[in-house]
């Protein structure tokens, strides 16, 4: 085979229309071999060619005779000295860290481990068996794709509504998606799915991990799998398991088609990305990629006396942590992110266990190199950046501490809202901050309400239905004796554990679901809804479905009347969210009269209709209160500089287990209030005007929303009603 010198960059296998340039980083290797395999199954190694060129730590050459679709991998030579952090073993075939596509899935055997499994010195002895038969193969791709006039929606943060979903689970049971497309990128782009997303009026989908990932051996041995996908091994490759069209590069085109289709519908695509660790686990894990290419240059090692650098620093709970202090690791992560923006056209990222990415030596550094590089990057600084602001290491809980440009999953919001509606004492003060954008967390650092990604449930934990149906987790199906998953759920079963025929309990559960959804949509910040919560999907009490690629985790599209009612309620509340800019403010409330407008932008009320005094905030038993959001004191402008004016809204919340009479406040002379929704009912509808100072009975554990009218003229409400009927 002809071999030309080639170029050290770009890293990876790059098809230029005439041949393929190969480039691999390995600082401590002594030599590198490229291995080519037959196709389509990749069972036989047909060529092994040393990379003849080396510039610094980069090995490379150019093969003019190769074409897209070729399968390949690497074998890297060097010392096997775990005490020095080196674990080279040329018997192990390795994936290219920059592979744009990966074909096949792992076939587990002891040969995939770099050491001799069962050896008395454990990982200190290298294993001589060839691992190629069990390892997926990298694929050379042709990146050509007709994007046409595709353009990112670029939805402003304050208009964003995120919908978290799993690519497979969302369509695996969808009756209107062709069976061959269910569970795939193509299935997610089918018209019935798009129609459903439009009916919810979501503006962005947040896809659970789609980077090529590994199903752990211990799960496969038990007949389970890694369903969620937080076990990445290919940071440039869309996972082939979600492809309906093929795995020799077709998965790349199919993913691009999904993004193009969603953009056409005005929906952004946010990827959940896992750069904090890889699928290779701790020192006893398999050798699949980074460990064999240059272990010391990719992973954080912990120095132990008499053991050297044999062990890994583990801030993730997954056995290893990628070393963000290494320039090659930072470069790989940044090039991966840019690739997904520039080549795959995605609109943003949610970073799993993001605190692990911010660790410099040991402590979390909010001004670390990772943030500095992203902030100065002309591409990445312009997309949506969302942090899961914690990891499992010391000092890893960093909610509110990420820098400007970043939004965060607000775990404080989740915990406060759950506690309030569960009836816990002492929540009203924190609840006030959560409803108004969490200025206590984000206001002092110059960030805005959209820094708070508000959520009640996500993939990790109970679904909304299970949150109000179970006091305890029920994870027996995971095969870990119910020891996995968190015990701290802040859930309440409303009087019975799990399924029940008690109508009073069922009605209370439905009201609680409506409370959570209404609270989420009426809070300042960016709401995020877990797919299926809008229709009461259950996991039968399993709060850790990471290994359940089954009906436990899949979206259930067969709705009974209760679930249909919840879905319609959710759609109605989302419509209110979109209709009212006072619910989507770009800046925090000031809580005082706005100069030049003559009105307070925010006022708090107690049940007697008077403003809430300080002692009520300090009273741990306060569970019922209200707040008015002044639509004529927003003090913001639209993109053309026009002042934004909206209705004044009144939100009443009663977390008591008993009904509470609430006096409707009189903000202005002749004030009247229009009831827009009350969570005691599953239907959102306009009700007759009510005079200020009238008493409104708040049902136990309920939320009500009113809009203010300053006269008896209700023509505007008639127009709103007509629009709602049309929708």
How would the blueprint of this fold be written?
Elements: E1 12-15, E2 20-25, E3 31-37, E4 45-50, E5 53-55, E6 58-63, E7 71-77, E8 80-81, E9 86-87, E10 102-103, E11 137-139, E12 162-165, H1 167-171, H2 185-188, H3 191-200, E13 204-207, E14 211-213, H4 217-220, E15 232-238, H5 250-264, E16 268-273, H6 290-298, E17 301-304, E18 308-312, H7 327-342, E19 348-351, H8 369-376, E20 384-387, E21 406-409, H9 411-422, H10 428-435, H11 439-442, E22 452-454, H12 464-467, H13 503-522, E23 526-530, H14 561-579, E24 593-594, E25 599-600, E26 602-605, H15 614-618, E27 624-629, E28 649-654, E29 660-663, E30 672-678, E31 689-691, E32 695-698, E33 702-709, H16 715-726
Parallel strand pairs: 12-13, 12-23, 13-16, 16-19, 19-20, 20-21, 21-22, 22-23
Antiparallel strand pairs: 1-2, 2-6, 3-4, 3-7, 5-6, 7-11, 8-9, 10-11, 14-15, 17-18, 24-25, 26-27, 27-28, 28-33, 29-32, 30-31, 30-33
Helix pairs in contact: 9-10, 13-14
């Amino acid at each position: 085979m002809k071999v030309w010198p080639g170029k050290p960059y770009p890293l990876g296998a790059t098809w230029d229309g005439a041949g393929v340039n190969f480039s691999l980083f390995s600082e401590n290797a002594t030599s590198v071999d490229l291995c080519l395999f037959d196709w389509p199954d990749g069972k036989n190694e047909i060529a092994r060619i040393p990379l003849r060129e080396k510039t610094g730590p980069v090995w490379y050459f150019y093969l003019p005779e190769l074409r897209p679709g070729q399968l390949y991998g690497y074998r890297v030579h060097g010392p096997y000295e775990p005490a020095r952090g080196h674990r080279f073993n040329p018997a192990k075939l390795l994936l290219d860290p920059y592979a744009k596509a990966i074909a096949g899935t792992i076939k587990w055997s002891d040969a995939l481990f770099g050491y001799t499994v069962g050896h008395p010195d454990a990982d200190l002895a290298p294993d001589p068996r060839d691992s190629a038969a069990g390892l997926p193969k990298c694929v050379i791709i042709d990146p050509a794709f007709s994007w046409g006039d595709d353009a990112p929606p670029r939805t402003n943060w304050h208009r964003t509504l995120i919908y978290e979903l799993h690519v497979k689970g969302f369509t695996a049971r969808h009756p209107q998606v062709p069976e061959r497309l269910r569970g795939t990128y193509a299935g997610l782009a089918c018209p019935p799915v798009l129609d459903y997303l439009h009916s919810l009026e979501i503006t962005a989908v947040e896809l659970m991990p789609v980077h090529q990932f590994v199903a752990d051996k211990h799960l496969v041995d038990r007949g389970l799998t890694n369903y969620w996908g937080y076990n990445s091994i290919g940071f440039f490759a869309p996972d082939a398991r979600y492809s309906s069209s093929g795995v020799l590069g077709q998965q790349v085109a199919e993913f691009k088609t999904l993004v193009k289709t969603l953009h056409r519908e005005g929906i952004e695509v946010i990827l959940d990305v896992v750069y904090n660790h890889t699928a290779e686990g701790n020192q006893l894990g398999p050798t699949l990629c980074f460990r064999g290419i240059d272990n010391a240059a990719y992973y954080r090692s912990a120095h132990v006396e008499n053991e050297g650098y044999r062990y890994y620093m583990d801030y993730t709970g997954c056995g290893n942590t990628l070393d963000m202090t290494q320039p090659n690791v930072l470069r790989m992560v940044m090039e991966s992110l840019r690739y997904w923006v520039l080549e795959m056209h995605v609109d943003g990222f949610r970073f799993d266990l993001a605190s692990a990415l911010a660790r410099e030596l040991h402590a979390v550094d909010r001004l670390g190199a990772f943030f500095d590089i992203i902030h100065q990057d002309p591409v990445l600084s312009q997309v949506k950046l969302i942090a899961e602001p914690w990891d499992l290491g010391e000092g890893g809980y960093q909610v509110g501490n990420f820098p400007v440009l970043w939004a965060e999953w607000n775990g404080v919001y989740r915990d406060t809202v759950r506690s309030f509606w569960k009836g816990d004492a002492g929540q009203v003060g924190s609840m006030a901050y959560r409803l108004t954008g969490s200025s206590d967390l984000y206001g002092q650092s110059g960030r805005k309400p959209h820094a708070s990604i508000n959520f009640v449930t996500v993939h990790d934990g109970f679904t909304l239905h299970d949150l109000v149906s179970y006091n305890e987790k029920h994870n027996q199906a995971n095969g870990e004796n119910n020891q996995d998953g968190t015990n701290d759920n802040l859930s309440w079963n409303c009087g019975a554990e799990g399924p029940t025929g008690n109508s009073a309990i069922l009605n209370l559960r439905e009201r609680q679901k409506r409370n959570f959804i209404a609270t989420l949509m009426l809070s300042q910040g960016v709401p995020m809804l877990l797919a299926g919560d809008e229709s009461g999907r259950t996991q039968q009490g399993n709060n850790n479905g990471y290994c359940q690629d089954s009906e436990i985790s899949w979206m259930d599209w067969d709705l009974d009347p209760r679930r249909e009612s919840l879905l319609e309620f959710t759609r109605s509340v989302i419509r209110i969210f979109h209709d009212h800019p006072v619910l989507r403010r770009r800046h925090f409330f000031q809580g005082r009269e706005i100069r030049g407008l003559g009105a307070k932008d925010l006022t708090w009320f107690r049940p007697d209709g008077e403003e809430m005094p300080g002692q009520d905030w300090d009273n741990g038993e306060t569970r019922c209160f209200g707040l008015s959001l002044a639509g004529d004191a927003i003090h913001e402008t639209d993109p053309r500089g026009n002042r934004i004016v909206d209705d004044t809204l009144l939100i009443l919340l009663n977390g008591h287990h008993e009904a509470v009479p609430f006096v409707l406040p009189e903000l202005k002379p002749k004030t009247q209030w229009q009831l827009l929704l009350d969570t005691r009912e599953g239907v959102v509808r306009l009700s007759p005007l009510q005079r200020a100072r009238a008493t409104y009975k708040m049902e136990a554990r309920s939320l009500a929303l009113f809009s203010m009218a300053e006269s008896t003229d209700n023509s505007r409400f008639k127009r709103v009603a007509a629009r709602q009927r049309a929708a």
